[in-house]
Amino acid sequence: xxxxxxxxxxxxxxxxxxxxxxxxxxxxxxxxxxxxxxxxxxxxxxxxxxxxxxxxxxxxxxxxxxxxxxxxxxxxxxxxxxxxxxxxxxxxxxxxxxxxxxxxxxxxxxxxxxxxxxxxxxxxxxxxxxxxxxxxxxxxxxxxxxxxxxxxxxxxxxxxxxxxxxxxxxx
Length: 171
Prior knowledge:
Elements: H1 12-17, E1 22-23, E2 25-32, E3 35-41, E4 60-65, E5 75-80, E6 83-86, E7 91-92, E8 105-108, E9 112-117, E10 122-130, E11 133-140, E12 143-151, E13 156-160, E14 164-167
Antiparallel strand pairs: 1-6, 2-7, 2-10, 3-4, 3-9, 4-5, 5-6, 8-13, 9-14, 10-11, 11-12, 12-13
């Protein structure tokens, strides 16, 4: 397994769970849907002993199946500035162009755990990497539910308020 180091140490969860890390271009996967938690760290984070995360100072997003722990079986995606990786339950897919508009949008630029309840048993995740910046889209068919930009400064997440709500990030 080849992992790309991104401005510091990769969290234990990402090291233990991630598939091959890839950078550059567009990547799209199909992952299990349902209840999903998106951990948004626009400035990275300190060590979080309660969930066994070491310090990770770089901006990033981690996507998990909602559950009590952020473990290997729940991991869906990691996205950092310019690169990322997919979880073992996600499979490569292709399709027409991804949607660009969120119906009932709100925007976050501070750390949070975004709790989403996708009605579909499968969701598509699309990541576009380039030049120290990555975008992430989470969608089903023609409906965009989450869109994010992860970069050195100015990272943000936009989300559909009908399906997602921000909560405090793990501390």
